[in-house]
Design the sequence.
């Protein structure tokens, strides 16, 4: 339902609370006047942008976690979990948010009829308080009837309004560029390398270590047939969270291996890696590793470490529809990226998101002589992002020591 529809189902007490937030001047005993006044305020681009501009970073993170979710109803427990995952760590709280600080509304953008003489209270920051505040602003509503009364929903048109508002604010800080003379484009290569791995295992004996890893020499031999070469990770590197065998295999190779293992095409048979019957069939099927299938798998695999990966992929698709500097794109999206143990937010953005989108064939990365690294989504990438959705809770859990993908 849209915002106007949900206002129609709200009682006068809830409408009065929403009207108070937007400083509406109307007959508080008339439901119709309350609704019309609220719609007029929220429909104002100036007022809505001022509201968004005054939001704290953790509130923006919370609402961002809902913007690209196709579900309409959420339980209180789900919303509390999302608020908690959006909370700032001590080091993040100390940093100045690019959005919260540099984009606060100017005095002339504040509604003229805001009550004078009243200091704006400091918002409560507990999960339930944040959810309650979003209800008071008309951004979350309870379900209408039956079991849905205990669920929450965000109006469809407000989702669009939030995305449009944030898009405009983000674009103000972006630096766009012309097409670079040289750029990397890896479309279709990842799918081909899935078949290259299956083919190698079919025609070679592949011994495994006691921990279940291929020997480094074998990994390097397999990658000789790949379209993209990688350096093996340093032996002392602290690596986990992004794949079943991520500790010992390079990022892209690890994704290819896990994709094959998850689909039961490869079998770790005690001390040797073998091709299964399913794997033999997949080797003959050129549609066994499409861009859509690989992207969906990557989302599910990496969302354990980067919970809002889906929304970040959507924003990159939206903002990098033409060549844009990686620095400016990173600066805009970094406030929405949390560090993951040994990975800084910068590392998550560069290595786990941008580089993996490149490997998936969804992003081009080039070098501009003056502006440095630039990126742009491919047409394939935009089509894949638009056509693939993964539920927030749909995560492939990976054990740090190379355990089983669940």
Sequence:
């Amino acid at each position: 339902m849209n915002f106007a529809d949900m206002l129609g189902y709200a009682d006068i007490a809830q409408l009065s609370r929403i009207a108070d937030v937007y400083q509406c001047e109307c007959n508080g005993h008339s439901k119709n006047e309350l609704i019309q006044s609220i719609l007029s305020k929220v429909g104002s681009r100036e007022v809505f942008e001022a509201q968004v501009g005054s939001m704290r970073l953790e509130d923006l993170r919370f609402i961002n976690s809902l913007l690209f979710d196709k579900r309409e109803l959420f339980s209180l427990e789900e919303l509390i979990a999302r608020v908690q995952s959006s909370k700032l760590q001590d080091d993040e709280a100390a940093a100045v948010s690019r959005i919260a600080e540099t984009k606060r509304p100017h005095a002339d953008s504040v509604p003229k009829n805001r009550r004078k003489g009243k200091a704006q209270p400091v918002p409560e920051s507990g999960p339930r308080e944040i959810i309650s505040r979003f209800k008071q602003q008309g951004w979350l509503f309870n379900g209408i009837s039956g079991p849905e009364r205990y669920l929450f929903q965000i109006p469809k048109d407000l989702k669009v309004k939030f995305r449009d508002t944030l898009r405009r604010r983000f674009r103000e800080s972006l630096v766009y560029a012309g097409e670079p003379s040289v750029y990397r484009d890896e479309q279709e290569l990842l799918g081909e390398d899935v078949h290259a791995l299956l083919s190698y295992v079919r025609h070679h004996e592949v011994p495994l270590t006691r921990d279940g890893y291929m020997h480094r020499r074998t990994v390097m031999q397999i990658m000789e047939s790949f379209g993209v070469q990688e350096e093996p990770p340093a032996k002392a590197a602290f690596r986990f969270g992004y794949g079943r065998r991520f500790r010992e295999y390079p990022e892209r190779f690890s994704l290819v291996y896990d994709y094959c293992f998850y689909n039961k095409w490869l079998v770790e048979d005690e001390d040797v890696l073998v091709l299964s019957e399913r794997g033999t069939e997949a080797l003959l099927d050129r549609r066994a590793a499409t861009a859509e299938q690989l992207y969906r798998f990557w989302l599910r695999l990496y969302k354990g470490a980067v919970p809002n990966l889906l929304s970040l992929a959507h924003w990159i698709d939206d903002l990098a529809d033409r060549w844009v500097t990686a620095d400016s794109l990173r600066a805009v999206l970094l406030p929405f990226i949390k560090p993951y143990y040994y990975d800084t937010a910068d590392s998550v953005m560069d290595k786990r998101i941008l580089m993996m989108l490149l490997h998936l064939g969804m992003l081009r990365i080039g070098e501009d002589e003056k502006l440095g690294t630039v990126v742009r989504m491919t047409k394939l990438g935009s089509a894949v992002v638009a056509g693939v959705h993964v539920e927030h809770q749909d995560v492939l859990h990976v054990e740090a020591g190379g355990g089983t993908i669940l």
